[in-house]
């Protein structure tokens, strides 16, 4: 595992000089997750489980409908959705999607309609296609968070829900200390551990329905919007 971490970190550092300031390069994201895909579930499955469960529980409380999971990764959340929901998952990493497709096949998850390689900031779906969209641990790693939020808003119908779960930067205290300590590890995966929550709040098309900390130490935040 240390060799994998060091290799991804080196690749990320090598690419960082070629990307625009403040922007994560698509190619760097693909390269990082190509390396992590075989071990992602073992390394991050339990660590991020509370956030995933909170997001899926929010979706499962809604009437049956079409759901977009943005950044579906290896599909860790797919089996937890109610079977009367119709799930479409997208991800930038083909390697992560390969794992997700095996999970769907082996688990006979027939409520999963599609798993597609796509840029979350430039979706091909028609406006208002989904009753809900969800992005778990995505906003701090995508190349353009503003574009991703705009697309989640666009493809979610009026009255639908946009659900976000992620870690957002703390100004002070023990959460800030953990962020600083974990920064090298986060960088190896392309995470922005200093991502402020203000970057996804305050959109005119969204009404904030819920915002709460999740997980054993409240390290992650669940945000639920209604699409206006």
TrEMBL record:
<dbReference type="InterPro" id="IPR029063">
    <property type="entry name" value="SAM-dependent_MTases_sf"/>
</dbReference>
<keyword id="KW-0808">Transferase</keyword>
<dbReference type="InterPro" id="IPR013216">
    <property type="entry name" value="Methyltransf_11"/>
</dbReference>
<dbReference type="Pfam" id="PF08241">
    <property type="entry name" value="Methyltransf_11"/>
</dbReference>
<dbReference type="GO" id="GO:0004608">
    <property type="term" value="F:phosphatidylethanolamine N-methyltransferase activity"/>
</dbReference>
<keyword id="KW-0489">Methyltransferase</keyword>
<feature type="domain" description="Methyltransferase type 11">
    <location>
        <begin position="68"/>
        <end position="164"/>
    </location>
</feature>
<dbReference type="GO" id="GO:0000773">
    <property type="term" value="F:phosphatidyl-N-methylethanolamine N-methyltransferase activity"/>
</dbReference>
<protein>
    <submittedName>
        <fullName>Phosphatidylethanolamine/phosphatidyl-N-methylethanolamine N-methyltransferase</fullName>
        <ecNumber>2.1.1.17</ecNumber>
        <ecNumber>2.1.1.71</ecNumber>
    </submittedName>
</protein>
<dbReference type="GO" id="GO:0032259">
    <property type="term" value="P:methylation"/>
</dbReference>
